[in-house]
C-alpha cells in the first residue's frame, strides 16, 4: 500500500513500477490523465487520487498488488480500506516538500495497527530536492528505526544512480539502463557512516544475538543474512528502510525490497474473526486450503457492469460460480442494515486500473474483483455457506460535515433515493440522514472535497442533479415565563356543534425537564373522558411549535378549570381547545428559541492550540479545559452551539493544516441569543 500526502508522487511511482516490470509499455502522467490508478473521471479532472485502486504486477515470479491510496484527508475511508487489505505500507515522501502533518498522522495510524512500513523519498531529481534534509526529517518524526538502504548520487542536479549500502555497489543509471560497479573512493566515508547505522539497526532486531558481537569485532556479516534479518525487522514493524526514487531511477531497487524485504501474506496477522453469534473463531491462517474468509474492502458501481466488489481473500480460495455467505454487521448508524444472505460468485477479475482481466481464482493473500454481488457492501465478510463467519469491521471516522441537498427536478427526485443508496453502499464514511424535523435530506461527509466528489458522482455516474441548500439546525421552543390562558372552542352550526373551554396554566421547566401535564380539575367541570383530549391537543400543538414552527420542550401545563356541554362537547373539541389555550399563552409571555449545544473534543498539535481555543470562543463556545495527549498533541474540550459548527470540519482542517480532528456529542438545549432568535423567526 502506498501512503502519503497529496502530490507526494504515489501515482507516479506506481506507473514507474508497472513500466519497470513490463506490465505497461510506458508510464503515464497525472497531468495527462492517462495513469493506471487514477482512471476515475473525477480523478482525471482534478488530477489527484480520490479512490483506492489496485495495480498488480509480477517481479521475479512474485505477484505484488500495489494499492494506491488517496493522499487527501477527506478520503480517509479508502486509506482505512487499504490498511485492511495490505500487508505492508510504503510511505511516499517528496524530496522537495518533506513530511507534512497528515503524513505524520498516517504513520501513527499504521503504528497503532502494527503495519510494517518503509519509506521512499521521491522526486530526488527535483530542482528543490534535498535528500539529506528530508531523510533527517523522517528520522526525527518517524523514529530511530528509520535508516536508508540506498543513497542517491547527484551531479549538477542530475541523478546518476544509487549506492546500495548493504551491497556497497553503485547502480549507475547514466545511460538509462542499470549497470553495476564499485563506488569511487570519494564515497567511502559516506558509505561507512550510513552503512554502519543501517547494519546496527538491522542486527538489533535479529534473533541471532551473536551477530552484534561479531559485527563489533570487525567480522564481515554476509549480505544474505542481513537481508533475511531486514525482512524480519520490517515484518515486526520496528525497522523502516528508506529508499529513493526519481525519473527512471529507483524502481528496480524498490521492487527488490518489496519482494525480499517486505513480509508475505503468511506473516500478516489475521483480523479478529467470529461466528455470527459473536463467538471468537481461532486457528484460521492465510491458507489457500483453509476455510473461506474474505472481505469486501471497496465497492464501486460501473454503469455497464453494475456493482463491483474489491475483495481481499484472507483464507481459503474464492472461485467463480461458488455460493458464498455474505455478512454485514455493525454499520447500521451509517445506513448499512445488518444482513446475512447467500450469493453466487460470478466472474472473478484481476483489476489493473479500469481494466478487468479475468482470474481463475482468488487465493489466500490475493485481491480480486467480483462483479454483481447485489447485497455485498464495503466491509462485508464472504465465507462458506456451511460455516458463515464474520470479520470485525475496521474503524471508520465519523463524517462531521453536514450538507443539505434537494433534487433539481421531479425526474431527479424519482432517481435520487436509488442513487444515494448506491453511494452509501460504496462509501462507509458517508452517512445519509432524512431529518424529519427540518424536512431536509442531509449528507454527512468527511469534508468539502468529499462532498464535491459525491455530488459529481450523482450527476455524472447516476444522472441525478441536486443542489445544495442552507442547512437548518433543529431548534426548540419554550415559554419564558408563567401565565394562565384559556382555550375557547364554541361553535354552533345549526346541527351538532362544538363546545369546549379549558383553562391552562403554563410554566417553563429546567433544561431537560421535558413535558409535564397536571390535572387539577375538581367538581367535574371538565368530564374525565375529555381531560386526556386536552393533553393530546396540547402535545400536538407543542410538536408544531407556537412561534417559529419548532417543537416545544421543557414545559409544565396544568389544567385547572373548564366547561363542557352535554351534547356538543367531544374529544376533538377539547383537543382544539387545548391547542388554542397554548397559543394564547404564547401571546401573553415571551417564547424562547432554544439551540442545541454540543460538547466538542478537538485533538490538535500543540502549535495550533491557541488558534483553536480563540476560534472556539469566537463561535460562542465555552472552553472547558485542555489536556496533553501523547507527544506534541493537546485535547481541547469545549461546549459550542451547533449553529456555529456546521462547517467546523472544514475550518479546523484549515486552521491545523489538515492535522486536527474532533468529535461532537449533544449536551443540551440553551436559549438562543435574542438577536439571533429574531433572525431565525424572521427567516421562518
Your description of this structure?
The chain is an alpha+beta fold and 684 residues long. The chain folds into five domains: 2-191 and 237-261, P-loop containing nucleotide triphosphate hydrolases (Rossmann fold, 3-Layer(aba) Sandwich), CATH 3.40.50.300; 273-391, Translation factors (Elongation Factor Tu (Ef-tu), domain 3, Beta Barrel), CATH 2.40.30.10; 402-468, Alpha-Beta Plaits (2-Layer Sandwich); 476-589, Ribosomal Protein S5, domain 2; 594-681, Alpha-Beta Plaits. It is built from 16 helices and 36 strands. It has an eight-stranded antiparallel β-sheet. Helix 1 crosses helix 9. The protein is elongated. The mean pLDDT is 90.
Describe the secondary-structure layout.
Elements: E1 2-3, H1 10-20, H2 41-46, E2 53-59, E3 62-68, H3 76-85, E4 89-94, H4 101-112, E5 117-122, H5 131-142, E6 146-148, E7 150-155, E8 158-164, E9 169-172, E10 179-181, H6 188-204, H7 210-216, H8 223-235, E11 240-244, H9 251-261, E12 273-275, E13 293-302, E14 306-315, E15 317-318, E16 323-328, E17 339-344, E18 348-352, E19 355-358, E20 362-363, E21 367-371, E22 381-384, E23 389-391, E24 401-407, H10 410-426, E25 431-435, E26 440-445, H11 448-460, E27 466-469, E28 476-479, E29 483-491, E30 498-508, E31 515-519, H12 531-544, E32 555-564, H13 571-588, E33 591-605, H14 609-618, E34 622-628, E35 633-641, H15 648-655, E36 661-671, H16 674-683
Parallel strand pairs: 1-4, 4-5, 5-11, 6-11, 31-32
Antiparallel strand pairs: 2-3, 7-8, 8-9, 9-10, 12-23, 13-14, 13-22, 14-21, 15-20, 16-17, 16-22, 18-19, 18-21, 24-26, 24-27, 25-26, 28-33, 29-30, 30-32, 33-35, 33-36, 34-35
Domain Tr-type G: 1-266
GO molecular function, one term: GTPase activity
Keywords: Elongation factor, GTP-binding, Nucleotide-binding, Protein biosynthesis
Amino acid at each position: 500500500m502506498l501512503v502519503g500526502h497529496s502530490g507526494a508522487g504515489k501515482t507516479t511511482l506506481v506507473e514507474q513500477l508497472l513500466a519497470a516490470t513490463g506490465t505497461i509499455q510506458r508510464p503515464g502522467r497525472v497531468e495527462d490523465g492517462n495513469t493506471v490508478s487514477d482512471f476515475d473521471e473525477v480523478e482525471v479532472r482534478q488530477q489527484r487520487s480520490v479512490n483506492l485502486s489496485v495495480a498488480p504486477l509480477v517481479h521475479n515470479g512474485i505477484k505484488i498488488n500495489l494499492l494506491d491510496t488517496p493522499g487527501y484527508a477527506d478520503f480517509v475511508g479508502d486509506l482505512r480500506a487499504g490498511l485492511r487489505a495490505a500487508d505492508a505500507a510504503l510511505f511516499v515522501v517528496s524530496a522537495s516538500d518533506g513530511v507534512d502533518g497528515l503524513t505524520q498522522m498516517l504513520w501513527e495510524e499504521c503504528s497503532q495497527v502494527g503495519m510494517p512500513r518503509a519509506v521512499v523519498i521521491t522526486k530526488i531529481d527535483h530542482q528543490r530536492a534535498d535528500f539529506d534534509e528530508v531523510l533527517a526529517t523522517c528520522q526525527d518524526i518517524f523514529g530511530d528505526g528509520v535508516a536508508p538502504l540506498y543513497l542517491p548520487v547527484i551531479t549538477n542536479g542530475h541523478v546518476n544512480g544509487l549506492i546500495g549500502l548493504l551491497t556497497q555497489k553503485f547502480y549507475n543509471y547514466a545511460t538509462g539502463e542499470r549497470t553495476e560497479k564499485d563506488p569511487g573512493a570519494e564515497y567511502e566515508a559516506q558509505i561507512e557512516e550510513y552503512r554502519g547505522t543501517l547494519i546496527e539497526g538491522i542486527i538489533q532486531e535479529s534473533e541471532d544475538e551473536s551477530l552484534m558481537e561479531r559485527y563489533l569485532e570487525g567480522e564481515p556479516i554476509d549480505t544474505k543474512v542481513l537481508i533475511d534479518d531486514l525482512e524480519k525487522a520490517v515484518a515486526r514493524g520496528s525497522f523502516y528502510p528508506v529508499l529513493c526514487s526519481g525519473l527512471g531511477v529507483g524502481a528496480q531497487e524498490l521492487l527488490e525490497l518489496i519482494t525480499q524485504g517486505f513480509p508475505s501474506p503468511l506473516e500478516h496477522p489475521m483480523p479478529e474473526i467470529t461466528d455470527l453469534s459473536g463467538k471468537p473463531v481461532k486457528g484460521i491462517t492465510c491458507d489457500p486450503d483453509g476455510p473461506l474468509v474474505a472481505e469486501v474492502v471497496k465497492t464501486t458501481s460501473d454503469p455497464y457492469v453494475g456493482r463491483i466488489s474489491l475483495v481481499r481473500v484472507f483464507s481459503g480460495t474464492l472461485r467463480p460460480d461458488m455460493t458464498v455467505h455474505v455478512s454485514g454487521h455493525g454499520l447500521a448508524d451509517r445506513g448499512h442494515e445488518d444482513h446475512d444472505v447467500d450469493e453466487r460468485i460470478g466472474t472473478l477479475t484481476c483489476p489493473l486500473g479500469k481494466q478487468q482481466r479475468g482470474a481463475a481464482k482468488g487465493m489466500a493473500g490475493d485481491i480480486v474483483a467480483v462483479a454483481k454481488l447485489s447485497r455485498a457492501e464495503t466491509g462485508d465478510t464472504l465465507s462458506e455457506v456451511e460455516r458463515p463467519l464474520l470479520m470485525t469491521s475496521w474503524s471508520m471516522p465519523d463524517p462531521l460535515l453536514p450538507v443539505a441537498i434537494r433534487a433539481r427536478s421531479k425526474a431527479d427526485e424519482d432517481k435520487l433515493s436509488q442513487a444515494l443508496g448506491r453511494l452509501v453502499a460504496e462509501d462507509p464514511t458517508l452517512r445519509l440522514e432524512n431529518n424529519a424535523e427540518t424536512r431536509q435530506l442531509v449528507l454527512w461527509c468527511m469534508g468539502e472535497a468529499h462532498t464535491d466528489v459525491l455530488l459529481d458522482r450523482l450527476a455524472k455516474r447516476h444522472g441525478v442533479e441536486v443542489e445544495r441548500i442552507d442547512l437548518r439546525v433543529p431548534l426548540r421552543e419554550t415559554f419564558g415565563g408563567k401565565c394562565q390562558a384559556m382555550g375557547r372552542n364554541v361553535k354552533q352550526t345549526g346541527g351538532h356543534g362544538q363546545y369546549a373551554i379549558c383553562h391552562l396554566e403554563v410554566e417553563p421547566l429546567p433544561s431537560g425537564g421535558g413535558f409535564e401535564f397536571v390535572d387539577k380539575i375538581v367538581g367535574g367541570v371538565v368530564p374525565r373522558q375529555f381531560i386526556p383530549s386536552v393533553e393530546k391537543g396540547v402535545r400536538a400543538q407543542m410538536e408544531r411549535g407556537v412561534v417559529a414552527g419548532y417543537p416545544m420542550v421543557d414545559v409544565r401545563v396544568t389544567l385547572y378549570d373548564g366547561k363542557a356541554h352535554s351534547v356538543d362537547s367531544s374529544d376533538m373539541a377539547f383537543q382544539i381547545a387545548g391547542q388554542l389555550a397554548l397559543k394564547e399563552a404564547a401571546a401573553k409571555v415571551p417564547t424562547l428559541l432554544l439551540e442545541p449545544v454540543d460538547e466538542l473534543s478537538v485533538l490538535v498539535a500543540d502549535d495550533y492550540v491557541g488558534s483553536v481555543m480563540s476560534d472556539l470562543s469566537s463561535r460562542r463556545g465555552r472552553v472547558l479545559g485542555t489536556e496533553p495527549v501523547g507527544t506534541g498533541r493537546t485535547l481541547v474540550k469545549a461546549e459550542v452551539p451547533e449553529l456555529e459548527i456546521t462547517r467546523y470540519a472544514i475550518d479546523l482542517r484549515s486552521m491545523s493544516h489538515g492535522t486536527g480532528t474532533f468529535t461532537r456529542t449533544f449536551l443540551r438545549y440553551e436559549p438562543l441569543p435574542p438577536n439571533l432568535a429574531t433572525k431565525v423567526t424572521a427567516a421562518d
